[in-house]
Amino acid sequence: MTIEQFQSLESPVQHWTAVQKSLWYDLKGHWKTAHDLIDQLGGIDAAHVHAYLHRKEGDQWNAEDWYRRAKQDVYKGSLEEEWKELFKRYVG
Predict the structure, then answer these.
(1) 26-68, pLDDT tens digit by residue?
(2) Cα-flanking dihedrals φ and ψ of residue 26, to 5°?
(3) Whole-angstrom Cα distance, residue 88 to residue 3?
(4) Between 3.30.1330, 1.25.40, 1.10.10, 3.40.50, what CATH number should domain 17-90 receive?
């Protein structure tokens, strides 16, 4: 699936993982819904998206903690670039 196809969907696909749904909600401008989907999940994938969401929120300290839990370096590029990398890794 391309980013354009992903973006054009009216709602997330039922069989998607919570991580994939979180990325879709974030893309659609629903940060809180995206965060709520992964807030209590375990696992490296959820921690990685969780880190991105806190970075987007502007909570750098919290984001850095989640990057550590995800075993990822703190992302240094733009939020848009990071979202695209997350999309490639977890959706496309």
Answers:
(1) 999 999 999 999 998 999 999 999 999 999 999 999 999 999 9
(2) -60, -45
(3) 9
(4) 1.25.40
